[in-house]
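User: Here's a chain of 1150 residues. Predict its fold as tokens.
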Amino acid sequence: MKVKKESLGFFDNPQQNSREYIHQYIKLRLEALGLVDEEFGKDDSQGFLHLAKSLIINYKERERQFRNYLCPADQRIQNFIRNYYKGVDVPEINIPSFTFTLDFYGIARELSLPENKEEYASQYISSYRVKQGILHNPRHDRRTTKGVFHIAEGGMPIPDDKKAVPMVAAARLLKRATEIDGDIFNLPFTEDNKKKSKIFVSLLLRPLVSPQVNGISPEKSLEVRFFAPGSLVSNLDFVESIFGNGGSPYHISNDAALDFESWSGHTGCIILAPQLSKMTKKELGLPHISEATDRQKRDGMCWESDAEFYNEGEAFKLTMRTDEGVIVTVIADNYFGYSKKEIKTFISYAANLLGNAEEEHAGGALIFPSYNQGEGHLTKAENFINSLDKVAPIFPDIIEMQPEGYGIDKNYPNIFYVPELSRFDIKTQSVSWSKKKQDYSIKLLPGNIYILPNGNKYRMEKAAATLNYRLVETNAEGLLIHKPSTVSGGGKSEISKSISDSIISGSFFIKDFESDFNKVDEIINFNYFNRFKVLPEKGKTDSRSFLSSKRSMGSSIKLLTPSPEFTEQYNSWLESIPQYIKGISFIVKRFYREEWGSDWKKYFSVDILNGQPGNELKYATRKLTARYLRVGYDDKGAWRTFKLRQDYVHADKIQMEDDITVSTVVPASTLSNLNPIVNNKSVKIIENCEFRFFQRPDEAINRGFDKKAEKDLSSPNTFISNFQPLTFQDAKDMSEDVINFDLFTPPMSNMIKEVAETGTSKYFVSSANPRIVDGKQTKNVRYLQTRDDLIDPKPKYIAEVGMRMARSLETSKPLYVPVNAVLSGRRNNPAEKGIRPLAVYNPVHFQELPELFMDFICSLTGKSPSTTGAGSEGALTKAPFNALWPIIDLNNSLVSFILTGYNGFTTPAGFIGHKYRIDHDLSLLIPELWARLNNTERDPKQMIQNNYLEKIEDFEYKGKLIPASILGYRITEKFVNGYFGRVFETPNVIFPDDMLKPELQSLEQFADGVLNIVEAQQKVAEAYFRDGSINSACPPLKALLHIMAYGKYENLTLTSPELRKMFTYEYLIDSDWYKGRILTKQQSDIALCAGHIRYVEKIIRDDQNLTPEMYESLISSLNTLKGNYEYICSYDYVKYLNGTIGKDHIKSRS
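Assistant: Prediction complete.
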């Protein structure tokens, strides 16, 4: 995604982002706008205003003469409003033309506090300058979805879940929102001055709508104008921190309509107006209840009492939109989530109108499996296609080769490229190789990265909680796991978090050295040949010993894990072995060398304490460490922790998504040099729309647990919300409470100590101290986490270099990294007062497309700290925030799934049954495992065939049919034993039977949970019939919605082969409705290109102030556009579009 780092606050010149510089700039702008008072006029500390006096006079005169001039984006919005309300009996509505425009990043943050104070408070927000940046606590600590979403009549069809607002009322609300009236318009920066500045503050944004596919299609973005009353400028600080500042909307270079390559052709406008919640229904022109329609009564668009507030005085947002590409929303609340979600709404609107693009409620990460290579490793020739001598010339801009035969990275001098046959040795701290019969070596040092010609990366790192170092190998190619259609609290953020923060480390204890090692000796020398019930076929006998180098650690773990394939006698023997004895056996296996022979015991020992053998196991002279991972809690709240494999190393992750994702689908055949594992006919390319993520660190309240959050919340210039503002005295008290204070990680404790010792910051925030709301700590603590690749681009650089080397792909060619796997997330809850159970899923489910889309259509969720309740979030979890019919998103998503062939796996967060609380433990664990499986192992057909997945069948409970088959397939004990040994030493004990089969915890709750899902699916499906959108559903979804609502479709049921055939690739490609989507996309692109041509021609014709350079640039653009137009109109373009999702045929009028 192309963006200038300055638009996000990363300036090459630090002065440009200094408070002093921005304050001077603000005063200059206020003076120019005629909003300055005597205090500013006398401020001559730098002579800044004095020097600019004549310039300001000229600027003020220009402002007076052009006070009502609108920039191009605003003119598009004004034209839309004028046309939308043409004929409606209300005074003319004008969007704000006199605003404080935020020309660059950082102004909003300084405007949000008085010039010489550290805090600001109004009825809507409390703001504090804190040690770490800024703390903004809005009046409401979270958003709600109940009754919030309103759409004005007169435009496109209104979804059934939205409130339909009569035109007159919508116009009056918009009119009031655009009028400067009341203290809400007071600019905090001038709050302590005699003259309060009352003004709108405005911002230009350019959020992404469709990702770039290098060499295929450019990225597309829309333009958004955001207006906020002066006192709510913190909302603009928030959104520009996420999406970037788009610059001055008045500058020709920022006119989106001239950016024909990247502009999607869509314009959005947001106006914050919480003051609207105090308008009455009567003054808005809504009818009396006696004259209202049934829909108006349902939606509350009528009144009985004169004093009734619109929407009962609660938060709401009102949207106006047509298919012409302009959308306007008024938001009557200033909670930050609404502002971000509305931009998400605009992106979704633009993506749907553009075609071959989706906005997805998703998380995702590129995951590179890593492996512990112990104290050393000798690479093998069979793992290499090319030598370093052949690979290095492909990358002359990256690799600088040395005479000794290795290379140094030209961008990062601590990245080394070493020959294909290299020996890594931790003991000697060397990497060595031979060249022309001469030996060479370089130092093996922590912090350095060593890359082989096949792209695999090596590093030396200290093992957690020890003084020991290990060699870690990381795969060249990663697995891009996409987590779409994931409900609030379902783990979108967690998939990209490192699991290392959740690993607990400690010494490895044994009971009695001699006795324990005698039992280990029995395991090592046991004859395993007769362990199977059915002996292997001839030629497939397994005669490998436990310590054999031909038997992997994973194979050894399977060997000591009970299995139905083993004899009863052998399983009994395994169960008689204490788990810690098995753990010692795996340690011996982990360190064993062939040259030890049978004399392996002498390499292990314990210290002698007071003349007696101790209990801490040592290898050579080093104490050994055991590491454990939490996998939920038991029914008493105790942690369920399990020992990780001794050689386990967490995967490297590159965060790719967090919440707002845009994607496009392209035929795989159009992309060259893909990862060899890609075998899809079409693939999905994704792009994150956000540069900072609105994180909710649920675990941060537990000191020291969320290391990433504590580090982020200790960093400067951080946007923070819903934490308690703490003072110098709080810092002293906390640091003196040493027992609890020491639980913090160093970044947080050091920051608090600095506040306590220096007293230079009036306020600070602690990760363990949420804001107090109504006497309780809020559960919705938030901060903006800057994307890792913006702070430290090196890990992403290393990942990309590794993939390029693995594919021998020079840097001048595009590197394509499409989605490899899908793991959507659920949020489950047990039964509570007023809330039915939903925790009917085990750790991993697979659903075929009909069942999967029944879930996506409904998107049921349990309680989440982000919102005020549980229930259905709607189509693909974003229906409340969709300004169009949700069926459009569903059509797009289904076509995407069918074309790409991605399998529908899901993981839960929250609970499994009522007994096991899991929070986000599986959101972290399952992707770690998934990346360690190959294509065949991830294939659900293979899993079903090998009994790794079991189909859930319908059953009767108390005389009622429970259609549990809608849950699809779930993993079995065989899956756990077969795969989880890649992470854990004892996989068979991780998930007990009642976790794999939640119905064993309570059949009553399980049955009610299934019925809860079915009834919710029926209710949601019926809405598509009420609003008429069923007629816009593609044939497979039309059939599915009928079955969800009424049980049948033209005598077909969910299990009918004819129905299930409708969800296949062959059916889709041959269907007339898919071909119609392709032609609709072509027609839309023809219209968009023609619009670009007309606009450029108009500028060339009418703008008399163009410089020669501008004129020449526009002529060049016009010629390019005309060439594009010819191609888009051709049959070649239609052929190119085949294999994409095309464009949905969208009904333009209600």
